[in-house]
Amino acid sequence: MKEELFVSGRNIPNIDPFLNIWHWEIPLYLFLGGLAAGIMFFAGLFLVMGKEKEMETTVKWAPFLVPVALVVGLFALFLDLKHQLFFWRLYTTIRMESPMSWGAWTLMIITPLSFFWVASYIKEVVPGWKWRLPIFESFESLVIKYRKHIAWLAMGLAIILGVYTGILLSAFNARPLWNTSILGPLFLVSGMSTGLAAIIWMSKSHYERSVLSKIDIALIGVELFLIVHLFMGFLAANQVQVEAAHLFLGGEFTVTFWVFVMILGLIVPAFLETLELFGYKIPMWIPSLLILIGGLMFRFIMVEAGQITRYLY
């Protein structure tokens, strides 16, 4: 008698038993993209509002971080690419339905725009700065002349960039944790909050810190609202999304998410910023640092946990 053993199943490298493709480069890229978007948005906003003198750090100093954040983030993304020499093909077409196309073109515009912004203020920030070539002087004058127009463009691109960092994940709807439309606005609000945290840390003006802290407290409230509704949506959905939610509600990401993101990254900073507004002496680098660490942890957790969840078992 001939006996045969049939085994059915899958064993695809980097796919089974769970997705294992994105590592540290992607969450770092998402974090730095959100941080840059937040700083650029508020720099443009307060310039348009005519608050350039009152919000000097926001408009003049903090934007110096943006080109650095974008270049480092893009380098991290480049390291993650499988076919690095063919990245230019993203710029041979524009696909309105593709989040990757939106992100590529947005970064193509906002990155040089951030350098232009810095160049227009470098003489005010760095005394004695002189351009070696006359063409740079002429270009600087042109940028200063149209600075308000650039601010409006920067604000729009910053919003697109902030939303893109979340939609980049939600476009992978084969992963239950990422299959939600809340990720776009959630990552946008989180990026705005981290951008404010960086500005508050840099600022020495009590007035400026107070204004930004009020905005940040509101953003943290919105972020908490979106996170709560994210889990409500998962728990009211199908079985795989319920299981995805349970990764944070008793599963392996429970402690890291609730301690480092929710408590230390959102609730504690909001409480400290509120105390500062009521006149208590709070070193503002503490809530700022907590928000930045919480924002970074949030992206690492979402990328890692999202790869674990799947529909087919």
Keyphrases for this structure?
about 325 residues; mainly alpha; Formate dehydrogenase/DMSO reductase fold
Give a description of the structure:
With 313 residues, the protein is an all-alpha fold. The chain has helices at residues 25-48, 56-61, 65-80, 99-125, 134-145, 147-170, 183-202, 206-235, 239-246, 254-277, 285-308. The protein has one domain: Up-down Bundle (Formate dehydrogenase/DMSO reductase fold), CATH 1.20.1630.10. 69% of the residues lie in helices and 0% in strands. The chain starts with 24 loop residues before the first helix and ends in a 5-residue tail after the last helix.
Tally of contiguous helical segments: 11
Tell me the total number of β-strands: 0
The best one-word shape is: globular
CATH class: Mainly Alpha
Strand content: under 5%
Distance between the first and last residues' Cα: 34 Å
Structural class: mainly alpha
What is the gist of this entry?
The protein is 69% helix and 0% strand.
